[in-house]
Amino acid sequence: MQTATAQRSAQRVIDLSGWIGHRSVELPTAWARPYDDVVVAFDRYEPTNWQAHLASTDGDVLLAFPWHDNADRILLGARKGDFPIHADEEAWDALEEGWWAWVKADGPHVYLAECDGDMIDRIRRTRKLEHRSPGLVAVGNVEFSWSRVPRVAYNRAWQDAIDTCRAGQPSPLGEWTSGSPGDRKMRLRF
Predict the structure, then answer these.
(1) pTM for the whole structure
(2) What is the DSSP secondary-structure string of the chain?
(3) Is 146 within a domain?
């Protein structure tokens, strides 16, 4: 377990203004778990309802999007902005029914953070950071998943997802390996 100190040069600022007042968190980039490749995996939630999840090609879920029903229709353009399909230097964030996510491109990488949105208001000291494990950071005892992917892989994953939805066959398919909320792994079928 590591604790952040005055190491300011290689950090990404996550603005939590609006969620917990006017505060921001500076997460060290070295603590972001790196992934070389990602896909948008589709999970059949109901017979006519797909959910989408950004996952590594090994099935590690980086962003779950648990409240975005009918992902296949959303990705076809019915509602803009629900998914961060274009990562750029302006951060995308969302708070939906207890789920919070943040995405921001920086040079050749895209940084991703996710946590239990109901826990964000419990952050009292944004400078108290802990590196608990690869890709898991605690801010004042609130755990965030923290990942980094190549920008080109990120953009390709979303474009592939849109293309498979246009073809009427959302792919790849993902199935959660367990029902435990702490298990962030999917079995993928390409």
Answers:
(1) 0.89
(2) -EE--S--TTEEEEE-TTTSSS-EEEEEGGGSEE-S-EEEEEEEEETTEEEEEEEETT-BEEE--TT---HHHHHTTSSTTSS--S--SS-EEEEETTEEEEEEEETTEEEEEEEEGGGGGG---TT-EEEEETTEEEETTEEEEEEEEEHHHHHHHHHHHHHHHHTT---SEEEES-S-TT--BEEEE-
(3) yes
